Amino acid sequence: MSTTDKGARLIEILLVEDNPGDARLTLEAMRTAKMANTMHVVEDGVQAMEFLRRQGRYSEASRPDLILLDLNLPKKDGRAVLAEVKADPDLKRIPVVVLTTSRAEEDVLRAYDMHANAFVSKPVDLEQFMKIVASIDEFWLHVVTLPQT
What we know:
Elements: E1 11-16, H1 20-32, E2 37-42, H2 45-52, E3 66-69, H3 78-87, E4 96-100, H4 105-113, E5 118-121, H5 126-143
Parallel strand pairs: 1-2, 1-3, 3-4, 4-5
Helix pairs in contact: 1-5, 2-3
């Protein structure tokens, strides 16, 4: 567990995003919002599960308090990652926010059927994207109580 200079616990976030531009924007939005967190980024669903299970190069990875998950990923898509996370007794309590370009009702329903904690469509507009990420950060890191991992 990491802490800030004032002793407050840093929140660990796992961002699962294959688009380098979207990953960079998400990191920048978190920095701009000045939220106390540590963001880890993986680029595909296989890496996400290795990170979460602390396998291979992720053997020293910290357990995230929150997962931001894109649906359309290479190697293993976000739907498969979500299903695995929510079926795993050691991982299922980690909140998963689906953060995707999809606006399809089918994707929304399926994500919630698989126990996603939230579904957020990425806006195309940069300013709106920054606001969305900041609001996710504010809500999940300052409003709700996350389970201790």
